[in-house]
Each structure stands twice: as C-alpha cells, then as structure tokens.
Amino acid sequence: MLKIENLHATVADKPILKGLSLAINAGEIHAIMGPNGAGKSTLSYVLGGRPGYEVTEGSVTFSPLPLAGGVGGGSVSAAPNLDMPSPDPSRKREGDLDLLALDPHERAAAGLFLGFQYPVEIPGVSNVQFLRESLNAQRKARGQEPLSGGDFLKLAREKAGLLKMDMDMLKRPVNVGFSGGEKKRNEMVQMGILDPRLAILDETDSGLDIDALRTVGDGINAIMRKPDKAVLLITHYQRLLDYVQPDFVHVLAGGRIVKSGGPELAHELEEHGYAEVVA
Ligand code: ADP
Ligand code: MG
Ligand code: MG
C-alpha cells in the first residue's frame, strides 16, 4: 500500500528526515512512536504534500487497492486514473502512484487521509458544509457524481453516531470552540465520510480523556480495520495502542526508523523510555 524508501526532507532548509524507509501492506496497522522533535509530524506533512516541506531524496510509492462499494467510497471502479511516472519504471506495477508527484488534493482523491496533530478551525463554514464539500471534491476528482444533500446527511449521521458525536456539532463552524477531544472526534467523522484507503493519524490521542480515547479507538477500528485499508498511527504514548492494536511498531529518532517490532515494543518504550530502548 505504501512504500517509503530512503526519504530525506528539509523544513526551512533544515534536514529533518534523513533516510526514512517504511513499507505498509493493505490490512496492516503500523504505529510510529518517537521522542519530541524526531520528525513524526514532518513525515505526515511530507506524505500529505504540505508546502514548505521539501523532499531532497528518496521515493514514496502509494498503491491503493480499489475499494469495494460503500456510499463514501463510491463504486467499485473508484480507483483514480492518475497515470503518474514512477521513480523506477522497471518496478512499476499497475496502480502504483508516485505519491510525491501528486498535488495534495490528488493524494486525497487517490485515497490518502491525514489527521492532524492540531486540527484547524474554520470560522464561518459549518461542519456539514465543509464535510460535504470535502467529499464531493474527492468524488469529482474520481469522476463520480456529487452526493445529494439527503444522501450526504444520512452518511454524516451514520459516521457521527459511530464517533458518538452530537448532530448539533455538525452544524457548528468547523472546530470553532471545540475541545481538543471534540476536534479529534470530528476528524474521525471526516475520515469515516471520506472512507480513505490509507489513514495517517498524527497524535490523534492527544487531548483525549479515557472515554473519548475509547470512542476514537473504536471509530478507527470500525472505519479502517479492513483487508483493503491501512493505518499509520503516529503517537507519543502507548495508551491509544490499547484500543487500536498495531501489527507493527516503529521508533522514529533522528529522522529515521531506528527500531521496529511488534506491539510489545510500545510497552517496552513506555516502560524504559526512548533513550534506553534505542541505545
Ligand atoms: P515531532 O512531530 O516528532 O515532535 P516535528 O516533525 O514536528 O517533530 O519536528 C521535527 C523538527 O523539525 C523539530 O526540531 C522542529 O523544531 C523542526 N521544525 C518543524 N517545523 C519547522 C519549521 N517550520 N521551521 C523550522 N523547523 C521546524
Ligand atoms: Mg511533537
Ligand atoms: Mg508532532
């Protein structure tokens, strides 16, 4: 699904990612943990195509499988027709996308979803309006018809219910006055509506109390734990991983993956700290 090879990236001319490699298969949940300032958010921004994050070396191949049905995902033929050159044509398989060559909106249309550490507030735009426009922009890029108001509301209600979010919050301006936990739940509602193939979630657990943590964890499982989807969870703490059990855990330090293992690695980190485990 995602193959990151020898990724180097700079922010404001400062090298942050320094040879990061990682492969994620469909059906897998990976967690990246790491100390503050290791480059975790930088990785998610680079994968999302945020301006100001410059890739200086390496490649990222995104190979989304076509999704089977579902209102959000559209028809079975929802695979994007983005015929992009691959860095090494000899290894190109059908459906492989050179992620770094795509604009952010093309990445989203191809099935990439990014959840941010700090979700933005958008005063003056209602949540429903924002979610509907996001979905319909994505459908348009895939050559699908926009969803009608009625169908959209039905979908939004279903996903809001999944995240135990009050419908009133869907009518309010995006994230304005939302608590940290409400912003995160709102983001998961958006993920449910967009129905991505690969979700990269940056510190989705920050600012969540125990109940919200469980709700968000259950939401991630319900939306993303599928054979044709994958998740990259970026987190400081082990606790989210009690609810969303990763298949693999990686430690990011100094701009590279320095250690990989199973779920037990997260417990080891929690107990002993990064310095000791990585040493
Ligand atoms: P993490 O998410 O792992 O805590 P970040 O990816 O946010 O780390 O940051 C990695 C490093 O990049 C930090 O040293 C941070 O100060 C630096 N950095 C991030 N954004 C910028 C920026 N816009 N300008 C300069 N340095 C930045
Ligand atoms: Mg941080
Ligand atoms: Mg961060």
UniProtKB/TrEMBL annotation:
Alphabetized Gene3D superfamilies for the sequence: P-loop containing nucleotide triphosphate hydrolases (3.40.50.300)
PROSITE patterns in the record: ABC_TRANSPORTER_2 (PS50893)
Entry keywords, A to Z: ATP-binding, Nucleotide-binding
InterPro entries, per the entry: ABC_transporter-like_ATP-bd, FeS-cluster_ATPase_SufC, P-loop_NTPase
Transit peptide among keywords: no
Region (Disordered): 76-95
Pfam families with a match to the protein in the record: ABC_tran
GO terms for MF: ATP binding; ATP hydrolysis activity
Cleavable signal peptide: none
Membership in a protein family: Belongs to the ABC transporter superfamily. Ycf16 family.
NCBIfam families: sufC
Name under which the protein is recorded: Fe-S cluster assembly ATPase SufC
Organism from which the protein derives: Sphingopyxis lindanitolerans
Lineage start: Bacteria, Pseudomonadati, Pseudomonadota, Alphaproteobacteria, Sphingomonadales
Gene label: sufC
